[in-house]
Specification:
By secondary structure, the protein is an alpha/beta fold. 38% of the residues lie in helices and 14% in strands. The protein has one domain: TIM Barrel, CATH 3.20.20.10. The protein contains 9 helices and 8 strands. An 8-stranded parallel beta sheet has the order 7-6-5-4-3-2-1-8. Helix 4 packs across helix 5. The relative contact order is 0.19.
């Protein structure tokens, strides 16, 4: 059975000697809608195969379709084709697409891009989960926004596991302080796990090593805090199979579903 979102367990075997070819799914060009369902089916098959290589359950992996720059009709199509959630990078663009009667608004929306503190109030209007929390200042801004709306919100802590100066995210060393500060300061934010975006151009060995480090961080942090952290959001169109092999419970997929991103 498929998991709910957010959720899913991330069992933790580490790397194996198996190699897996990372490719792209079908689809491309302007005529994408008819291929979306096929691409999602192929994506789930590839997730299942990757998970099986390290003894994991592909059904425990949620698919977040990243819909940055995608039109509303494609968002509706991807929801009807069975993805678990939609991911947006920018608050303003997401607000322009939000339409409660439409299929696209019937699944959880996740903010997967960087969130500025001054956009927290707007983000709290539509997002079920913020995957990119990386500072206590942002925690405080989201707390105020949720209190003003009388709601709760799931959050993930973004970790810059590759120590890439061009990426957002908290460092490994500062992660425990951020997590503990969130639990101390917030009454409305539910910490569900961790998220990461890897640097570009890594080989398989380095990619899997960083994903494995994220799993170990998640497991260690949960033990330290005494709470369950069920979500490990890692893996995108070019590396999701490696992420799944290392215990990812949530992948964020754009071009492998829709084709090349529109500018």
């Amino acid at each position: 059975m498929r998991k709910t979102v957010p959720g899913g367990k991330g069992p933790g075997p580490g790397g194996s000697g198996d190699r897996i070819r990372v490719g792209r799914l079908r689809g491309g060009g302007d005529d994408l809608v008819s291929s979306i369902a096929d691409n999602i089916n192929s994506l789930r098959e590839r997730i299942a195969r990757a998970a099986g290589r390290t003894g994991l359950d592909g059904n425990a992996v949620s698919i977040v379709a990243v819909t940055k720059t995608r039109p509303a009709e494609e968002m509706d199509e991807v929801v009807l084709s069975g993805v678990d959630a939609l991911g947006e990078n920018r608050v303003q663009e997401a607000l322009s697409k939000w339409d409660p009667p439409a299929p696209r608004s019937s699944v959880p929306w996740h903010l997967v891009g960087h969130l500025q503190r001054n956009k927290a109030r707007k983000a709290a209007e539509i997002f079920s989960c913020i995957q990119s929390v990386d500072s206590l200042e942002l925690v405080s801004a989201l707390e105020r926004a949720c209190l003003s709306r009388g709601r709760r919100m799931d959050v993930l802590l973004e970790v810059n596991i590759g120590e890439d100066p061009d990426k957002f995210g908290v460092s490994k060393g500062d992660l425990p302080l951020l997590a503990e500060g969130l639990l101390e300061r917030s009454t409305t934010l539910d910490l569900k796990g961790l998220m990461t975006v890897l640097p570009l151009g890594l080989d398989e060995r380095r990619t899997r090593s960083l994903f494995a480090s994220m799993r170990e961080l998640r497991d260690g942090l949960g033990s330290r805090l005494g709470i369950e952290l069920p979500i490990l959001s890692m893996g995108m169109s070019d590396d999701f199979e490696y992420a799944v092999m290392e215990g990812s419970t949530m992948v964020r997929i754009g071009s492998a579903i829709f084709g090349k991103r529109r500018s």
